[in-house]
Amino acid sequence: MYKVKQEPPKFLPPEWWLTNRAHCVSAEAECSRSERLIAASRVVVEESNKAAQLMQQDANKKLEQRLENIRFWRQELNKKLEDMTEEIEVLITFRTRVEKALESCSQPLQVILQCLSERENHVGIDRVHDEVERELIKEREVTEGVISLLQRTLEQTNEQMRLNRSAKYWLEKDLQQKFQAEQIDDRCSVLTNASLGLSQTEKLPCSALSTSVTPEGWETSSDINVSKAEKERNASASLRTLIHRVLGQTAEDMRGQHRAAASALQLRVQETKDAKEQIEDRLHKIQAEIANQERSLESLAVSLQAKQGPLKVAQTRLALRSQRPNPELCLDSAQIQLSAEVQDLSAHMERLNASLSQSEMELRALTQNQLSLEEQIQGKSNSLYIDEVICSSLHQSIAIHSF
């Protein structure tokens, strides 16, 4: 079944005119809006270009200021780093001086201990707590005190060295970070709109938008490193002054006590020599007296022996005359003389025997005294060998250096 084709509707002339007019009005309105938009766009372009230029100029200015700040702090940090490096090197030389001084105390201490040990070999009355022993003990105490002081000074120096190196580490780390920051900001400062390699990111990373360090905190961090380095450098300089004073004073103390001990030892040697000479002089006198006493004993013995004959003759005569007949037993002068002779000879012999006994006792006493003096001389010789030969030689070998 066929459909009848409908023709398009037809409009009236007024409708035609009305429609054309409507299109014209609409086009005119669009042109006006477009012109206004173009004008507004020009304003936006000009304002954005000006704002971008101003912001870029401000950013360049800020970057230059930032670079100046970084360079200033790098200069400060470099100066403190150079000062600290120099201070560490100087302190190392002072530490070496302390180590050498401490090492040099070993030999004097060993010598002093050996001298005290050798003097224990004195015998008899020479085992005395004399001035030499007191000075040697004092010298040992001074040396041990110096060793203890130098050990504490060395420990203090090592600790200061650790603090100096710590301060140097933080200065170097701060310098390295500022060098990296300067390189980055310097590169940023030379970038222009025509620079190659520019990149555009729709969204900046969070770390770029919100940093954890404020400008004040940034300066404070470097100021802390600089202040710490200056503080440790001053402390190190004070320690070097102390080390110099300690080294000088300890060396002078050891030299003074060494001179006192050497003087006491020299005086003791001379006193021992004088005592030995006195004892030897007494020994010579004792020996001479012993010889005299021996001659006296011999003389007494000879004299006593010589009285035996006359006494026997007188006693024999008396015995024979007692055999006379009774009428002849007369107490004549001969009888009286013989009786007196016997009595006198007996008395002389008793005195001679008494003198002989006393002389023998005195000879024994002199001999005992001689043995005692010889023992004393032997002891003094032993003391002289210990003090003059061994201890003096050892003590003179002590070398006290200034470091």
Automatic annotation (TrEMBL):
It is found in: Cytoplasm, Cytoskeleton, Cilium axoneme; Cytoplasm, Cytoskeleton, Flagellum axoneme. Keywords: Cell projection, Cilium, Coiled coil, Cytoplasm, Cytoskeleton, Flagellum. Its main location: cytoplasm. Pfam families: Tektin. InterPro entries: Tektin-like (IPR048256), Tektins (IPR000435). Residues 262-303, 342-376 form a coiled coil. GO terms for cellular component: axoneme; microtubule cytoskeleton; nucleus. One of its GO terms (biological process) is cilium movement involved in cell motility. Belongs to the tektin family. Microtubule inner protein component of sperm flagellar doublet microtubules. Microtubule inner protein (MIP) part of the dynein-decorated doublet microtubules (DMTs) in cilia and flagellar axoneme. Forms filamentous polymers in the walls of ciliary and flagellar microtubules. This is Tektin.
